[in-house]
Amino acid sequence: MTRQPKGAKPNVTVSSGKLSVVPGSNKANGVRDKLTYRVEIEQGVSVNPAAVAEAIHKTLTDPRGWQAVHPVSFERTDSDDVDLRIIVATPTLTDKLCLPLDTGGEVSCRVEDRVVLNAKRWMYAVPAYGGDVALYRSYLVNHEVGHALGHGHSTCAKAKTPAPVMMQQTKGLGGCRPNAWPTIKAT
After folding, report:
1. N or C: which end of the chain has fewer CB within 10 A?
2. Averaged pLDDT of the chain
3. What are the beta bridge partners of residue 89?
4. Cβ neighbours of residue 6 under 8 Å, at least 6 residues apart?
5. Which of these, 112, 107, 90, lies nearest to 41 by C-alpha position?
6. What domains lie within the chain, and their CATH numbers?
């Protein structure tokens, strides 16, 4: 194993263009309509695949998440027959997988059965989240899966309140506060 120099940033930019399915599964924790998904990660991206899959499932099954507002329960599998493919990819591959959308190497997307999470954002979040990468990751998952559930973009309705999860928070907060959860509303 080659060691990176001290202080080196993990790879999120050198694209192999090849995806690997994260092995394993997590059962749905509800009795509602089951939505199956698998997690795929671009080969060469410096993440722990099992930890990524765990973070995604934890977000999707959190009581503040979509299961609280939609008649759906999420189940992870590593089979080919799934409703959604949740993919963590370099900006280069994200741009390709998101076509015809223009992600400019900066944002994530949902196209057809693909929820594509930009590895750059997964690793480093955005400044508006003040270094809370875990919270931003939950936002990223909930926002893009929200599109798969039929939700469009929204805007900040009232300054200093939680941003709607369907707001494009990666591009700015418009005076709102960071928020990763569809059940948390402006007050």
Report:
1. N
2. 91
3. 118
4. none
5. 90
6. 19-152 (3.40.390)
| Cα–Cα distance measured from residue 127 to residue 136, given in angstroms and rounded to the nearest whole number | 10
Give the whole-angstrom CA distance, residue 163 versus residue 124: 20
- 142 has pLDDT over 60: yes
Helical spans, DSSP H, in the chain: 49-60, 91-97, 119-124, 133-148
Any bridge partners for residue 180, and if so which? none
- What is the distance between the alpha carbons of residues 120 and 12, in angstroms, rounded to a whole number? 6
Strand-pair category, 109-111 with 114-118: antiparallel
Collapsed DSSP state (helix, strand, coil) of residue 90? coil
For residues 139 and 150, is the Cβ–Cβ distance under 8 A?
Answer: no
pTM: 0.91
Q: Is 52 strand, coil or helix? A: helix
Q: Which helix (H) or strand (E) holds 84?
A: strand 84-89
38 contacts 117 by C-beta, under 8 angstroms: no
The SS3 of residue 117 is: strand
pLDDT above 70 for 186: no
CB–CB of 141/56 below 8 Å?
yes
Q: Are strands 84-89 and 114-118 parallel, antiparallel or unpaired?
A: parallel
For the residues 157-186, what does the mean pLDDT come to? 93
Please say whether the beta carbons of 164 and 153 come within 8 A. no
Report the distance separating Cα 164 and Cα 106, nearest Å: 20
Which residues make beta-bridge pairs with 38? Answer: 85
